[in-house]
Amino acid sequence: MITFDSLTLKAFIKENENFLTGARIQKIQQPTRRDFIFLIRGLDSFGKILTKKLYININPQYHHICFMEKTNEERRLIEIPQKPPMFCMLLRKYLENAKISKISQPPNERIFELYVETYNELSEKIHLCLAIELMGKHSNVVLYNDDTNVIIGCAHNVGAEKSREREMAGTLPYIYPPKQNKLDILTYEGEIDYSKLSEDFYWISKAFSKQLEGKELCKIKDYVLLKHLTPAISFDFSQYTLFSELLSGSIPQNSINDMIDNYYAFYMEKDKFQSLKSHLLTLVIQKLKKSRQSLSRMLVQLNKEQNADRYRLYGDLIMANLYNINDYVGSVELFDYENNKNISIVLDASKTAKENANQFYKLYNKSKTSKVKLEELSENIKNQIDYLEQIKFSISIAEDIKELSEIKSELLPEQNSTNEKKSANLPLEMEIDNCRVWVGKNNKQNDYIISKLSKDEDYWFHIKDSAGSHVLLRCESPSDKLIFECAKLAKEYSSAKLSTKAGVIYTKRKYIKKPPKANLGYVTYKNEKEIIV
User: Does domain 1-177 have CATH number 2.30.310.10?
Assistant: First the structure.
């Protein structure tokens, strides 16, 4: 991944200057402390009114600015908080409905300046500037008064302990970053050291200097002057370029904005995918550990309750020998007619023989009730463990952010956003021997297959005794070969994928039942057959 540089910003400004100049800022949102969305309404080159979303990201890893397309907004997994941050409220106060008078870029800097005209509380026209600084770990968004040059507020305050050169906070004067000791390549006429291009000259980043290796000085000047722009992204998305001729294999882009938007959306989606996947896996593993510990404790307790019949036997023996037992004794030896041997029974010396017998009957009834409850709870926990194993498997095979979002909405329903509730990812669909086959990759898709998609005569496949996907086959009279292919799919999309062999069960949909209040994707079945794959 390469970082957003000053030349890319220069090209972006050149491409969008006409639209932004004279446009109005309609709405401001701040999804996180490091990204902003500005809804901007302006005129395109044909005089038609357009509304675009200006996306600003000041994350040190992928800082950039672009007009965001709807598909890339989904890929970025943007969630708008119910309560906006304080800096967002400040921006709304000063900038909403304000008119953009001009945009600019300070010479050689990675700073995008939006100059706006608005009115204060006294209806006096004031001029403000929003400086978007795209400088790696020093990236920031600063709002200051252009008339007085005093900062009104910034996304990140910078104190003297962080920077000796440049403090950033409300009421302080706004100053540009210190000048770098570099040359302007447009006025340079000497020899070029390609290994130090980025160190010697403005406008040239490290990534761009690698692309320029071996190019003549006059050609490099043309690039810096942005002549013949042909934006492109390499096939593996490792880098982008403003000039496709500098990359041997690349995907042409329609505009500079599309190049920036597509390139950084790819990395943000990839990063958020890995982050969300790790988070969900950690959460499921923790729940699994807790459930297994609970089950272990219950099994120990259940083992203790297996002695319930012993209490009943003691009570029966005491009642049968009441005539022969003295009251208020510590123990008694009686003949066990069930096991044909003498046994010694410890008694409570403060109670009569009959009271001791009643005490044993109470212990028997209590143990019997506890045993039933413990068996019921143990079964519920076992079902919960199976369910969590299924979710764990679904997370491991998830391939995109939408699938993970579905799993998140199932695992953490209280954290569901509006977008997640509306979005639905359909099961994987394919065709084998002119018959349709569906594969569910998570519990929501599995439930969709059973509840809405399937018909009575369809065939249902699932790996035996393991977590896996539901596979549905729609075919009037499937051949043995087709059934075996579907069984292989059920094994492939299961936790037994790497096993040498595994059992796959299948039956018709009419023999599948979804129990009431069961976990998502859980079904019972009958009349099943098994195939070894």
Answer: yes
End-to-end CA distance of the chain: 42
Locate 256 and state its tokens.
């500079």
What distance in Å separates the CA atoms of residue 514 and residue 327, rounded to the nearest whole number?
A: 58
Per DSSP, the three-state class of 354 is: helix
Segment 436-492, tens digit of pLDDT: 999 998 888 999 999 899 999 999 999 998 899 999 999 988 999 999 999 999 999
Give the distance from CA 96 to its chain's centroid.
Answer: 31
Expressed in percent and rounded to 5, the helix, strand and coil fractions of the chain are 40, 25, 35
- Residue 97: how many other CB atoms lie within 10 Å: 13
Mapping DSSP to helix (H, G, I), strand (E, B) and coil, where does residue 530 land?
A: strand
Query: Can you tell me whether residue 333 is helix, strand or coil?
Result: strand
Q: In this structure, how many other beta carbons lie within 10 angstroms of the beta carbon of residue 340? A: 7
Could you tell me the pTM of the whole model? 0.74
Distance CA(318)–CA(320), nearest Å, equals 5
* Residue found under tokens 């600084």: 133
Task: Give 492-508 pLDDT, tens digit per residue.
Answer: 999 998 889 999 999 99
Q: How far apart are CA 158 and CA 522, in angstroms?
A: 54
Kindly report the number of other CB atoms within 10 A of residue 1's CB atom: 15
Residue 145 CA to residue 171 CA, distance in Å, equals 10
Model confidence pLDDT, tens digit, residues 245-282: 998 889 999 999 999 999 999 999 999 999 999 999 99
Locus of tokens 């291009």 = 197
Give dist(CA 162, CA 39) in Å, integer.
33
Other beta carbons within 10 Å of 339: 9
The answer to whether residues 344 and 331 touch, using CB atoms and an 8 Å cutoff, is: yes
Neighbours of 94 (CB within 10 A): 19
Reported as half-sphere exposure (CB side, CA atoms, 13 A), residue 110 has a value of 23
DSSP label of 351: S
- The tokens for 374 are 């413990």
Poorest-pLDDT segment among 336-345, 420-429, 474-483: 420-429
Which pair of tokens denotes residue 445? Answer: 């898709």
Upper half-sphere CA count for residue 48 (Cβ side, 13 Å)? 3
Q: Which run of H or E residues covers position 332?
A: strand 331-336
Of the candidates 242, 215, 247, 248, the residue with the CA atom closest to the CA atom of residue 230: 242
To which residue do tokens 């100053």 refer? 175
| 244 three-class SS | helix
What is the Cα–Cα distance from 121 to 102, expressed in whole angstroms? 23
> Of 349, 356, 365, nearest to 319 (Cα)?
356
CA distance 490 to 69: 37
Distance, CA of 64 to CA of 56 (rounded, Å): 6
How many whole angstroms from its chain centre is CA 140?
A: 26
